[in-house]
Amino acid sequence: MKTGEMVVPPPVGCTDKKRVVVIGGGVSGVLTAFELARSGHSVTLVEMGGLGNGSSQRSAACIRQQFDTLATVRGMVFATRFFENWSAITKMGDNPLVQNGYLFLYDWRQDQKVINRRVDMQRSVGLHDVEFLSPEQVDAKFPYVSTVGTICATWCPTDGFLLPNVVYNDGAEAARKLGVEVLQHCRVVDVVTEGSKISAVYVMKNGEKQMIPGDLFVNATGAWGGKVSELLGGMGLPIKAWRRYLYIVKMPSETLKMMTSEDFKCCPMVIGPNGAYSHPTPSGELMMGWLHHAEAEDPDTADLEHLEFGFSINGYGEAMLREVARWLPEAADRRVSSGSCGFYEMMPDHNPVIDFDVKKSNMVHAVGFSGHGLMHAPFTARAVAELVASGKTLFHISLPWDIGEVDMRVYHATRDFYANHESMHI
User: pTM for this one?
Assistant: First the structure.
């Protein structure tokens, strides 16, 4: 950031103060509530469990700006800048952003020209840190990464990973200080409507129904987004809850042979040619993930404490470890110590809906992030605040920090969900 550059972006202007009910207390909902309160609205945040109870606390918690959708690149440049300035913006202490960078490795199946054009596009819209690297350049920067079989790579040092518990806990506290009412263990169970508008929702708390009136309602419920939209009388959203697994490998510093403990601490998020990825955790372990076939599940009945058949730490976990060790040899000859799973809220085109509902005119959706909700959250919150201020669907919004305009059509509720899709999906 340049000397003298604005640290705290101004809030979205509010000429008409509204009562807004944000449903969903994950990172997206928490930061949306914070941003709306910062803009002058009266906000109630409703979460059916504890804060971060859904996908937020089960996330790989990564953040990157390397996408191939232009609007998403700009939005993620904003989100990264927001997290870089977290303490100044929220007035909370701990910064949740760890910028170890993202390294994508590509093999002969990929077209270098396409990758180069993608990097040029990313740089043209403000992601100036991203680089196209040859295998030799990767070897020089990361001598502990094997480039055997790779033809090129892309690298962005300002990408990294987040500490989600800091974001949703400190974010909620910052929201409370701005007057947001945070209701936990309150599930939305019914709705009061007047024509095409919602006038109130009912929540169940401690066995009793409580009515919460509002002028505008935000659906930020992640994998529950389609079910909540239906409950509130809104449009059908083709969101599928897909289970995704993460595995942990212990990497004690005294056992490292090919890299120093400092190398491991600063190791980037590395995505191999087949899509498996890994990054160090704050506690000094290696976290791994990999796309796999999944069937849609009901998030209300799925048991996320149970690892499905074939996905045990000795099954899929060990297979993933072998894949990761292909380009991170330090991981070879180790064992997977634990596994966990959470939901991706998948949309057919892998892009979210950030827009007004087509049936209920005072409901805004902020759902369908397809595994990228945590990293998108500051941009999501800003976009929702712009929608609330305008009271209508927007085709463009202008982001602070001279980031520029974002074309919002890719996030519209009326788009063809089965047309184009974000290809840099892991």
Answer: 0.95
